[in-house]
Amino acid sequence: MSQQSSPKTSPNLNRTVGLCLAGVIFMGGMAYAAVPLYDLFCRVTGYGGTTNRADAASDTIIERQVTVRFDASRNRQMPWEFTAPDDAVRLKIGETGLAFYKAHNPTDETLTGTATFNVTPQKAGYYFSKIDCFCFVEQTLAPGETVDMPVTFFIDPEIAEDDEMKDVKTITLSYTFFLKSETSKINLLESKLASEKVSNQATVNIKQIPQGS
Description:
By secondary structure, the protein is α+β, with helices and mostly antiparallel strands. It is built from 3 helices and 12 strands; from the N terminus they run ααββββββββββαββ. About 12% of the residues have low confidence.
């Protein structure tokens, strides 16, 4: 009786399966850092509702008004207490607004943090301009220290010329604080992944990870 030979596995099939497994492992490893990485990506690129930085106040003010609300959150590794202003502000487009966030370090260590930011609705981010902000630099708090952190901003008058912005009456400005050590880990991971090659020797660029990943 003749024996049937076992079917041979295609090298291409093995390669495809291997690449798929590598992709799954890679994305699983990225899950821990996904949120802070996306926040930092948005901060750098202006994607996802991040705001603009202005050198000076607007020289044009129009009668149309917008309400600005404030929100504060922190990464789970950040022990600070971080709160937003309770009251929203209503201002004319082009008018300069000022708000104070508050941070408190309840620990017995001196800690440094970095704030990421965005606005909702996201489409309004392009027109939300900050003149000065605590988020532009790292913030260091001594043990038990509490600080008021200002942000000075205005809504660019060009928003009035954008038909897609006609329905925007309220904008929410949000900040998330991270420990400096956490952002350092993210930057290190970014550098490491950028130098590794997957698939057919292609370099992975962490900033190309889509929002839904």
